[in-house]
Specification:
Helices cover 73% and strands 0% of the residues. The protein is mainly alpha-helical.
Amino acid sequence: MAPLLSIMILVLLTLLAIGPAMTWVSKGISLVMFFLSGKLGPFVIVIFTLIYPWIVTTGMHSALAIARLEAITKRGFDPFTRVLTLLHNITQGAATLAVVVRTKDEELRATAISAALTVLCAGISEPCLYGVTLKYRKPMYSCMIGGFAGGIYVGIMGVNAYVFFMTPGLITLPMWINPNNTGNLLNAVISAAIAAIVTFVVQLFMGIDEPKQEAVSE
């Protein structure tokens, strides 16, 4: 009975407590983002790039879906959440590739290569996040620095996403295409390149603290 009861309890908690609570949290985050946007304009991106990797760590980035949907519904484009996700995904991939270069652990290198390809191509950052960057902590700081650098460019130039159901990555670049603003896609690519290069270089410089392997005595 344990599996059945577990499912029943979780479903009831989700419908009656967790779901409604997260809806209010999502609306609150949406209001904060729009408020800061009205006060600070595009530079609100710069602020959120520093904390977004940690937001994703807690899973709270899913709460931004309401803000994303509201932005596209009201304005026809999303100037916040997709840009944050783009910079987050690119920096996670870049930091993980830097780990590939620096590490001497073959198992970690194999994991990092697979995770980096996943986030850069498909936009899924969890393998990088939980398998590499969060585990070794320094790559997370590199992602914050790289995201901040890319965020400055975005804040100056302005980059908007025009598709809701896409996770930013290399194969979803068309989400940045705007027939009325041909420079939007180019600016998205440039911001991603800035974030990737800065993150990669910083991570190469910082390195990672790998656990020392003790010699096994016979």
